[in-house]
Amino acid sequence: MNTANGERRAIVDIDRVAKSFGDVQALRGVSAQIGEGEFFSLLGPSGCGKTTLLRLIAGFDEPDSGQIRIDGQPTAGVPANLRPTNMVFQSYAIFPHLNVAQNVAYGLRRLKLGREETRRRVDEALAMVDLAGYGERGSSALSGGQRQRVALARALVLRPKVLLLDEPLSALDKKLREQMQVELRRLQRAVGITFVLVTHDQDEALIMSDRIAVMFDGEIAQLASPETLYRRPVSRRVASFIGVMNFFDATVKGVSGGKVEIDIAGLGQVEIPQAQAPGGAAAGRRGRLASASARKC
What we know:
6-stranded mixed sheet, Rossmann fold, 27% helix, 297 residues, CATH 2.40.50
């Protein structure tokens, strides 16, 4: 749902959250808001704190300080099973002794629904992930992509307000992974639930996300749309992580008529729109210009 000014209403509000494990400070006062119905990604290298933050939203851990609110409600002391969230794990955690329908229905048991209502909701969830008619199939007879879809159906059948995804595509081969990226984005748009994805794969985040939080060393270095991150990274570290970048020493020669004239060491002078130049661009200012290399298709 959008607010009166067109912005998404915040469904997850992360306010100055910190978390340590012994001497390791995993999160350092992280703040962010995730919109209702948004596909939001936490992107960064191993050890940056993204999975820790996902686990705090899920309720598997508690922050040392700060607060997380989901749909306006504080989550402090609320166990994972009572939060309006559900998680799809990297390993999928499919029960091998249960068939597809039984796996999907597993989380419904605590709701004590009738047999017909349970069957209806399981069938609905399987249809969402294009597995209609697979209910009686054994778990051992599923491909990797089908197992991933079962894990999604099991999470969606509980109708969470926020679906948390912990690198759910990492176990798939390249071709299937690319197919599932498209399918996951299609599914998110169809169901309208907020998705929060943890990934270290830049292409994956750029392809699927409405917004991305790039994390390093327990902090958010930049939170923006994929286009903004790619075209206007706030630091060299973000630029290097998001794309294959070349960096050049440069000097601003002048600003006129909405254009900035830049002298690039070894390449000569170029003009760029002032809107694309860093804030405060003025004659004589020195810095580095980042240029994206062509990506392989």
